[in-house]
Amino acid sequence: MVWVQEKGVTRRELVRWLLAAGAAVGRSVVGVGEALGGPSYPFKTLGEAMASAGFDPRRAASFTAAFAADVHYGHGDPERLLPPIAAEVKAMEPPPAFFGVVGDLICSASLSFGQVPGAPQKQKAIEEFKLVRKHLSLFEPRVPVKLALGNHDTYPGEDEPKLFHTVFPEHPEYHAFTIQGVHFVFLNGGSSGLLDAEQMAWFKADVAKHHKRGATLMVVVHQPSLGSVVAERGIPAAMRHALSECEGDLWMIAGHAHRNHDACFKLPKAVIVQATVTAGNPAIWGSEHPGYWVYCFREGKLVARIYKRLGQGYRVASPPPLARAAPIRLPFEGRTDVLWKVLVGEGDEPYRVETKAAWCLNYWHYNRHLVYAFPLSLAGGQARRFALLERPSGRKPRKYLTSPDGKAWHEVAAEQLEREGSFTSFAIPKDCLAAGRLFVRIEQCVVSGFALTR
After folding, report:
1. Mean of the per-residue pLDDT values of the chain
2. Is the dihedral of CA 351, 355, 359, 364 positive or negative?
3. What would the CATH number be for the domain defined by 60-327?
4. pLDDT in tens, 217-276
5. Is 60-327's fold the same as 338-453's?
6. What are the pLDDT digits (tens) for 11-34?
7. The whole model's pTM is what?
8. Where would I find the beta strands (DSSP E) of 92-209?
9. Which uninterrupted H or E stretch holds 410?
10. CATH number assigned to the domain covering 338-453
């Protein structure tokens, strides 16, 4: 802000001038607020925002859909969650084709990663779902409601969302529908972002049947993990599997991170935009919340996205950064140095010695310590390094210790570690090589896989 002070212009005057300049060119100045410490909301009404984007909802072959996420009933004042959003969405003319909630309707089906509820907690979850249902009735019948499940709506080991279906028996676990040529797919990311074989098969078959070449496809799933090979790595695998032959405008609408954020990823024949939606609950952590999105479609294409921050105003989203699309990686993919590997939840159990961490089906979270033992014969005695897929967890520093027998431990020094993204490796100590077995103790990181490498 040195330039402002030297020129004698106040912060408020600068913001007013920049917003006026943005309105003059008919677009919201999305980057202005970010430069000054947060997004701006230059439009007072949805109509003004739509006009700035060149969108008329009354025009033929046009429609809108509204999305919120992470309303988290069970935390904060419930009257400040869905009711204010419902009042605004129901007043839209014409009304949106539907209102979608992108997961985490409640808090108590699973209070944290890997947590399994007991009977009292399950009953509390059901009561939270009942209150969600009561408030969702404020939308209908004018605006149909579509729901996706999040990690707080189900729990590890719940094969079917029984708690959810106790209150919402008519809402499918996952489903799809088409509106004016735009195909929508709502998936169940469950407690860990892991789609089971049945849902994966349904997803691929549905897309193959209903997505037309060059058309718009909107996938709705709670976890925005397309860039992850560690936590919630089932989502990238699902998208690669089901969308490998798709061409057209592909979008994945997600929640979970409690912020608005776009990221782009490459598929074999298209780019998919991962659009993360911030929380609709003002009482939880996050940024730019509470609020909801209005997606605007014309002639089968998504032509504008408008965000409403409750109590402040509207802004029109910038185009997604398609040119910066990154590959969707699978665990250890492209690593020519890997001699043997195993993924958590996919064959690691024979090597697990001791775990004090949260079990998330195919990764470990809240890891106080993990102990695994790997015979070096798994790599034919050729391995010289050990690697794992991990990322930090919490504020404490990550630690890695080794032992030839699981009794005498030696910490791996920081200068011995090599990191490349989520891939961390270090040399196998000589005493472990001599013993033919490597015991590893890993602390304070989320972990999804292990490898013996050259």
Report:
1. 92
2. negative
3. 3.60.21.10
4. 999 999 999 999 999 999 999 999 999 999 999 999 999 999 999 999 999 999 999 999
5. no
6. 343 333 333 333 333 333 343 334
7. 0.90
8. 99-102, 145-148, 175-179, 182-186
9. strand 410-411
10. 2.60.120
Q: What is the pLDDT of residues 94-109, one digit of tens each?
A: 999 999 999 999 999 9
Distances (CA, A) of 319 to 28, 208, 226, 261: 12, 27, 19, 12
Structure tokens at 424: 């961390």
Q: Starting from the edge strand earliest in sequence, which strands make up the sheet with 216-220, in order?
A: 175-179, 182-186, 216-220, 249-254, 271-276, 261-266, 326-327
Nearest alpha carbon to residue 257 among 64, 69, 56, 414: 69
Token couple for 100: 């979608």
Q: Is the pLDDT of residue 47 over 50?
A: yes
Block residue for tokens 């659009």: 275
Tell me which residue of 107, 108, 114, 284 sits closest to 191, measured CA to CA. Answer: 114
The answer to whether 197 touches 205, Cβ cutoff 8 Å, is no
Largest CA distance in the chain: 75
221 Cβ contact list (under 8 Å, min separation 6): 102, 103, 148, 186, 187, 188, 189, 193, 235, 252, 253, 254
Interatomic CA distance for residues 57 and 72, integer angstroms = 31
Q: Domain boundaries in the chain?
A: 60-327, 338-453
Query: If phi over 0 gives left and psi between -120 and 50 gives alpha, with beta otherwise, what is residue 114?
Result: left
Rg over CA atoms, the chain = 24
Residue 186 and residue 222: Cα distance in Å, rounded? 9
Q: Which of the 8 DSSP states describes residue 278?
A: -
Residue-wise pLDDT for 181-228, tens only, equals 999 999 999 999 999 999 999 999 999 999 999 999 999 999 999 999
Beta strands in 241-384, from DSSP E residues, in sequence order: 249-254, 261-266, 271-276, 291-298, 301-309, 313-316, 326-327, 338-343, 352-359, 364-375
Q: At 58, list the tokens.
A: 């009354």
Q: Which of 446, 341, 427, 348 is nearest to 386 (CA)?
A: 427
Sign of the four-CA dihedral 255, 161, 281, 183: positive
By DSSP bridging, strand 399-403 and strand 410-411 are: antiparallel
